Each structure stands twice: as structure tokens, then as C-alpha cells.
């Protein structure tokens, strides 16, 4: 799985305006991080995703969109893996 995840990370990092990405397991353990994504944020991303899932527990996990003046972060859970993608705003 590690080689597959590394391949996904590399593909994401080639996307225009992406500055970093991170993936974590359901316990908040960082599985992969690249670019501006810091390994210490893995647990926070998982916690944000878990809290957002509580809003409508019978639906699939939502995509969370956080933004500042010039940056944004997309957080999404798929199964037991939560991913975060950091980008410059367009």
C-alpha cells in the first residue's frame, strides 16, 4: 500500500497550485506528507473530518473546504484514510 500511496502523493503534487498533501489513518497517524503539509497536522485533519461526519451521520463523509485569503485546504475521508490537499487560491 505504501508504494501506491506514494504514487498518489506524487500525482497530487503535480496538480497546478497544489502546495502540499497529507494522508492519515483513522487514528491520526500520518501515512504520507509532502510539500507544505506538516506531519503534525495529520491528527487535526482526522479530527475535523470526524466532527464533520457527525453533522449527517447517515451520509457519506463530506468534503471539508477551509480557506484563508490566499490558501485553501480540502479534507476528505475515504474508508479509514483521511486526506488533506493544500492549494494556492486561483
TrEMBL record:
| Protein keywords | Cytoplasm, Lysosome
Query: Where is it localised?
Result: Cytoplasm; Lysosome
Q: Which family does it belong to?
A: Belongs to the LAMTOR5 family.
Q: What is this protein called?
A: Late endosomal/lysosomal adaptor and MAPK and MTOR activator 5
Would you tell me the Gene Ontology cellular component terms? lysosome; Ragulator complex
Keyword flag Transit peptide: no
Could you confirm whether the keyword Cytoplasm appears in this record? Answer: yes
Signal peptide residues are none
Q: Which GO terms describe its molecular function?
A: guanyl-nucleotide exchange factor activity
* InterPro entries reported for this sequence: LAMTOR5
Pfam families xref list: LAMTOR5
Swiss-Prot/TrEMBL GO biological process terms:
cellular response to amino acid stimulus; negative regulation of apoptotic process; positive regulation of TORC1 signaling
Amino acid at each position: 500500500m505504501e508504494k501506491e500511496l506514494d504514487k498518489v502523493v506524487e500525482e497530487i503534487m503535480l496538480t497546478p497550485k497544489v502546495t502540499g498533501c497529507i494522508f492519515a489513518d483513522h487514528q491520526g497517524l500520518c501515512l504520507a506528507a509532502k510539500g507544505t503539509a506538516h506531519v503534525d497536522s495529520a491528527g487535526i485533519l482526522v479530527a475535523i473530518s470526524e466532527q464533520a461526519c457527525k453533522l449527517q451521520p447517515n451520509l457519506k463523509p463530506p468534503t471539508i473546504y477551509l480557506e484563508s485569503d490566499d490558501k485553501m485546504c480540502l479534507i476528505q475521508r475515504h474508508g479509514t484514510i483521511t486526506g488533506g490537499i493544500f492549494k494556492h487560491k486561483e
